[in-house]
Amino acid sequence: MTNKNIIFIHGLESSGHGFKGNLFRERIPAILTPDFRPYSPEFSYQELLKDRMGELIGILEKGEHWRIIGSSFGGLMATLYCLKYPRKVYKLILLAPFLAVPELDPSKYEKVNVPIIVFHGKNDRVIPIKKTKPRAEALFNNLEYNIVDDDHMLHPTTESINWLEILELEK
Questions:
Q1: CA 112/CA 141 separation, integer angstroms
Q2: Superfamily covering domain 6-166
Q3: Which residues 6+ apart lie within 8 Å of 138 measured at CB?
Q4: Mean pLDDT throughout 119-148?
């Protein structure tokens, strides 16, 4: 693979070494799967988001044309990054993203043209599609929103995706 600017951003209570991080390292050896600051109920999600975004910006400032995969809370982080630095993002893949939050008020951002692909389980009991899909449509021009027969974890969906193809990577 020639482009090594690929990163997976894990969810709120996960890590870069959970199910998805391990699967991505197996299938996409060049991918970065960092462990962001761990979740603790002592801190608000806003505090955690601020800290994790600082970590993410520090990692991504070193490259261009990023292919970013964000899961749940990591989808929120990936979206915020893409809205702030759209020229640095080649493609965004969001897995059950946490988008219906005040930090993503569409009136505060210009819609971006970065290709965005969302996979959201129709059986997701953690993040409602009813709030997430309209928010994605309000933020992104180039959006493909896939509602799949899965739950919030999206394990079967994540396993079934041809990641090299969807990320447009050379074998």
A1: 6
A2: Alpha/Beta hydrolase fold, catalytic domain (3.40.50.1820)
A3: 106, 111
A4: 97
